[in-house]
Structure formats: structure tokens, C-alpha cells
Amino acid sequence: MRFLFWIRKHALFCLGTFLLLLLLAITFAGPYLPFVDRELTTITYILNEEKKPVIPPYPPSEDYILGTDKSGRDMLSLIILGAKETILLVACITVLRYVLAIPLSFLAHKKWLGTHLLLKWLNGLLSYIPTIIIIMLLAMLPPFLLSEYRPLFLLLIIALAEMPRAAEMIKLEFDQISSKEYIYGGIAAGASPYRLFRIYYLPLLYSKLLVYMVTDLGKVMFLLGQLGFVGIFISQDFVQSMTGDWQLVNNSISWPMMMMKAFEDIRGPIWIPFSRHLP
């Protein structure tokens, strides 16, 4: 009874933990399920009962629970196999953002070499321009667009675009903690700025940093979905079309990249946009 009472009291925490464990199970154990096509086999056509060729996409059936896309790939296998890449991308961007934001916020709190003015200027500048516009402009610059390290550059650009906002939030926490008496005690004891940061400030920030980072995971996922919607890919290939033009083609199976054909899919077979928006 006490356990049930504890679950009822922390229902939101229990629900979040269950969904997180479910996501991790899908990510790491899903690819080994027997009905998952790990090769993501494309199908040109299949013969129906009348021996006539039928091209994809195919609707949900016993063979394809969520149907197939226009290349004949199983939608359920796409979602399961794309989970690992999606989580890796979102986690890398979020961790990189806070790895850069934490030292910047501490230096801004100490007003070291005008970093507080730089942070204030960056926040003011970025508050007038939507994040997705900044990322689109930078991502399409030739040095980044044509570089073989484009995925790394794009991860850095996405992390930096929201980094000043995260640094400002952490700086406010530093400002608040600095008024505590034990901080004055550390300064009186002769602790260096690095020792103050590591021993006096950070232990009080761990829980709040965890909350900020978990909140940012959802924001990064939403931002990647927006980028996929407008055709900005994390990883891509240059492919020559039938007319001789060169086009950028997405080669990622992460969940946000499934949004890139949303307008086209919504006017086609209904199970494709439904399946792609399940994650």
C-alpha cells in the first residue's frame, strides 16, 4: 500500500520514468526484434493475387504493421532503427550547449573581460531573430554546406544558437548563489575562482542543470523537426538528378528528418504522415 501511495504521489515522475525506459528499450532492444527489417529493404513492386505488379506504398497489413513508405520500406522498422540516431543527435547538441554555456555563465557572473556584456549583447541580438532562421542562414553558407564535416558544423551551430539563453539562465543561478554566506566564507579562506566554481557553486547547480538539460532535450527535438520540415539536413549527399542538376538528399533516418516531406505526404497515403508523426 505504501508503494502504491508513493506512485500516486509521484505520478508524473513515474509516468516520465516509464516513458523514458520504454524509449530506451525501443532504442537498444528494438532493432533485434524479429519483425524489424534491419536492412530497410526497398521494394520495387509485389505481385497481387491477379499476378499484377503493385508498386509501393503499401497500407498497414500483417506484413507491415504501419505500412510502407514510397520506397517500400517498413515504417515501423524506420521508426525503431531511427531512434538511436535521434537520441544521439539530441543528446550531443544538448550536452555541447551546456558544456559551452556553464563556463561562459560563470565568467559573465564574475564580469571577466566583459563577458557579461558579450552575453547580454548575444541574448539581445538572438532575441530579435528566430532560432530556426539563424540556423538556416548559417547552414546554407558554402563553407558549411560543402564541407565533409558538415554534420559536426551543423551540430555546433544548433548548439550555439541557443547557448546564450542557457548561459543567461545559469548566470542568474550563479548570481543568486553568490549571496550565500558560505560563498563569502570560501572567498575569505582564499579559494581561487576555479575552486569556488568547482566546490562551492557547482554542487548546488547539479539538480537545476539536470532540469534545464531535460527541458532542452524536448526543445532540440522540436527544432530538429522544424529543420527537417524546411529541408535542412544534419547529414546529406549531393546527388545528380535526371535533368543533370545536383540536389541535396537526406541520408539520415532520424525522426526529425521524416518531417521533410510532410506537405507531400499529407496529400498521399494517410498512413505515411501518421506513422512519421508517431515518435
SSE string, helices as H and strands as E: HHEEHHHHHHHHEEHH
> What form results from the Cα inertia axes?
flat
How many beta-strand runs?
A: 4
Strand order of the largest sheet: 1-2
The helix content, as a percent range, equals 55-70%
* Terminal Cα span: 35 Å
Biggest sheet descriptor: 2 strands, antiparallel
Radius of gyration: 24 Å
How many alpha or pi helices? 12
Alpha-beta content class: mainly alpha
Description:
The chain has 279 residues and is mostly helical. The chain is built from twelve helices and four strands. It has helices at 2-9, 11-28, 75-109, 115-128, 131-139, 142-145, 150-161, 163-177, 181-188, 193-229, 262-266, 271-276, and strands spanning 46-47, 53-54, 236-240, 246-250. The strands form two sheets. A two-stranded antiparallel ribbon has the order 1-2. Strands 3-4 form a two-stranded antiparallel ribbon. Helix 3 (75-109) packs antiparallel against helix 10. The chain is flat, with a radius of gyration of 24 Å.
